[in-house]
Automatic annotation (TrEMBL):
Record SUPFAM superfamilies: Adenine nucleotide alpha hydrolases-like (SSF52402)
GO biological process: tRNA queuosine(34) biosynthetic process
Protein name: 7-cyano-7-deazaguanine synthase
Keywords of the record: ATP-binding, Ligase, Metal-binding, Nucleotide-binding, Queuosine biosynthesis, Zinc
């Protein structure tokens, strides 16, 4: 079965790539601050595993808010890194590409800790799957790690440390800022895995 993965180059989607070995990986450049590095890291991961890599570029900067857009947080934001309807946008764009590639499943890298945002919940994944499936093409949306923490996912996927080191999780820049939720999660996860990222 032809499959695709929404690949950002972060720890979670990287681990899904290593675990599920999809036919295609799709990286979305939607105007986020870390887009260049996300594209570079994703391409390197795909080359390592032997996955066909695609980049979809759609400039949505004027619609963004918070850390990922380099702008003030929206009044509705539950956290500083919230970009309105971002996962819905990314899944839709990736699904549009995936359907043209003949994919029947699109994997997303949602993990248990993403439930801090509504678009990271099991209910959201169920609803977006139903919405996409309702339309033509028979494409399913699956979040195989939604019940796992990042550390549990890395262990389940058996991602080697040298590959995990590719991951870029920063929300604010192409070079890790060390001071955002993405960077904090990366350091905490690597430390929990015993890879000694802590500097203090």
């Amino acid at each position: 079965m032809t499959s695709a993965l929404l690949l950002s180059g972060g720890m979670d989607s990287l681990s899904i790539a290593w675990w599920k070995r999809p036919t295609h990986a799709i990286t979305i450049d939607y105007g986020q601050k870390a887009a260049i590095t996300e594209r570079t890291v994703s391409a390197a991961i795909c080359a390592e595993i032997g996955i066909v890599h695609h980049v979809v570029s759609v400039d949505c900067r004027s619609l963004g808010s918070g850390d990922m857009a380099g702008a003030a947080a929206d009044a509705a934001a539950p956290a500083s890194d919230w970009w309105p309807y971002r996962n819905q946008l990314l899944i839709t764009l990736a699904a549009m590409k995936a359907i043209g590639l003949g994919a029947k499943v699109l994997y997303i890298g949602t993990v248990a800790s993403d439930e801090g945002h509504r678009d990271g919940t099991k209910d959201f994944v169920r609803m977006i799957d139903e919405l996409v499936l309702y339309q033509e093409g028979g494409l399913r949306i699956e979040a195989p790690a939604i019940g796992l923490t990042t550390v549990e996912l890395v262990n389940e996927a058996k991602v080697p440390a040298r590959v995990l080191a590719y991951a870029h999780s920063c929300h604010k820049a192409d070079i890790p800022c060390g001071n955002c939720r993405g960077c904090n999660k990366y350091v905490e996860s690597m430390d929990s895995l015993g890879y000694g990222c802590r500097t203090s």
